Structure prediction request, 446 residues.
Amino acid sequence: MKTSDYPPPLRANYALILLLLAYILSFIDRNVMAVLIGPIREDFAISDFQYSLLHGFAFSMFYIVMGLPIARLADRHSRKWIITIGLVLWSLMTCLCGAARSFSSLFLARIGVGVGEATLSPAAFSMLSDLFPKEKLAKALAIYSLGITLGGGLAYVIGGMVYEWFAASQPIVLPLLGETRPWQLTFIVVGAPGLLLAVFLGLLSEPKRRGESGSTSLLVAEEAASLAVIRNHLRVRWRAYLAPIGSVSVLGILGYGTMAWYPELLMRTFDMPRGEAASQFGLMFLVAGSLGTLCGGFAVEPLMRRGYQDAPLRIIMAVALLWILPAVAGPLGSSPTIAIWMAAPIVFFLNAHYGVGVAAVQFITPNRMRAQVSAFMLFCTNLLGLAFGPTAVAILTDFIFADDQALRYSMALLPLLVCPLAALLIWQGLAAYREAAQLTDGEGAP
Prediction:
């Protein structure tokens, strides 16, 4: 597909901005709970492990499971409408988290947030691959992946500020809900903006799918969405896919565990006020995390121009190995200043690999498979990362160290377990990935 056959840059970039805003809101809505651990635990009288079920398991199980059938729809139908409907759903369910009066009702609302957010990334990845040519796709995906750092950081900053403001105010009584706690009002405030963004997404034009006609197309439209064809494709190239999907999934355990517990680490270990811990970590996440996302994504194109078809995998391997030292040193820091400044390289590497991993999968996947294969990647990364990451830290704290104050040791142990495994998964698939990339280029995709 020639570069001239893609939409004009202005149209493509406008779509990218809207998708980025949706991604930012999705991470604000899913991660604001990290600021509210203490108040939620106190109101519902639950343990770290039970809280981790709300933060990770309740959201991620349906987010993971629903992502696969929704991606199948995205490979056949309008992707922008799938995203728009999902945005309305998860925004409303985030607001409903603020109406929760029990552990079970909050659990159900978090499930709804997960179902809504399952619509976004598989469809967005597919849209972006039809909006930008291959040489620009890694950069576009890196910009889209800024949603993780911007949304994740703003969840701490905005969540902390909103909570502190309501906590310092007089009790607020809402219609139907009665007197509402500060943490409940925080959910309502951060969930509402998504309803406005949904209007703009609904007006967005659906991009034309690429690579569907002509002799270079690997699959015709009807068989492109076949599960049997996709299953065979993954089976034949399993080592090539295991490298990016396996490594990003394993690193996701450390990434989501860090995002869920680092502010709480600052509060428990150094007695930092909740608002201060959230804002300082959030600002670090915004700056260092965004730099990591851009550096990782923008490093792909220069390496590929030098002939490294496995450039994305090389970057992920470097991230996995370099991440170990700060991820251990930060939680074990002797002062809050050290812990905060060590958070800079931690969140840099936390975000440097994800967009690169997504691009790696797009480079070896034909068009009509992309949403479903992307959903499979999200299934794996979220099953290990989003579902198990926060819980892995809680398991170490509650059942291995059996002490709430041992949270820092749980967080320091985790990188020693996952980072070497991620590097090994990359190493085993380098040759297979290069072969798959050559084959996909020969087939005319992406």
